[in-house]
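Record Cholesteryl ester transfer protein, 341 aa.
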Amino acid sequence: MEISNVSAVFRGTIQYGYGSWLVNVAQSIDFEIESQIDLGINPKLYCGKGKVAADTSDCYLNFHKLRLHLQGDREPNWLKKLFTDFITFTVKLVIKGQICKEINKVANILADFIQSTAENFLSDGDISMDIGVTAAPVITSYYIESYHKGLTNYKNTSAVISDSVFHPSQLTENRMVYFWLSDQVLNPVLTAAHKDDRFQLNITAAELTELFKTNLSSPTPAVFRKCLLESDSPELRVWTSSVPFLNTSTVGATVRAQASGQLLCGNQSTPTLFFQTDVTIVVTASYADKKLFLQGNASEIFVTQATLPSQNQTLLDETEVEFIREAVEKIGIPKVLSEGW
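=>
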């Protein structure tokens, strides 16, 4: 990295004084510094304490011009010129060493800040992510390449993953910043979130009634309609009953999960309806206006269980089972994706 022919002018005033109980003398000197420099840095990255660290010791600073003028005097006498030349020579030596040291310090502060911010962003409660580097990063003509662990930590347990299949040749040349997150990284995150009861959703009262105004082709079962219209505070609780599995491809991220739900009417302790479904959905993501939007297309939905616990009976009517399947597809999945789980 080279920065050439940088010119700058600094002006200021030095104030000094001396005194005693008898007399006080104060003086000031106006000064102006003209500078014109070239700065060159050949940065190297290495693995330091599990993080990306920068080495900018290969650094040079060339002065094309560094002049000090006192009191606006641009044509000083030989004595003043000798004094200012001595000062500028000393300043050159100090600046050359100090600037490169400060650049190295700032580079490492920035690298540490970026990684700490990323770790904090990927951490929530008992779930965290170890993104320590696994080898020294590489700087090429087109990109900076670094490999990170990507290990999910949950309550003192850490995920184990095999080597990544990623290679920079899979990316296009017009890239700026790319983050490659493999299925081996994402699936342990889903496992931790499931164990931490993150995949739960409760929908109550007015919101639940409003959602089921969606036009469905299947007729609404009487028990469901009665619960929504006649009970004071209907509530639908939905959660994952097994660990979701994710597989990415060119069409999107395919997620397979088993979801359970129960409908409670009023203050009943026993659910009016309990159901369990196996769902396979292809999720695609888009980003606009600084917001992430998820779209889902269900490829498979099977209702594996549907019972009426309050009546101690199983739903065998195909029409009622089809209503649950259609409600999951047209109401449940869009609602879950809009929650940003």
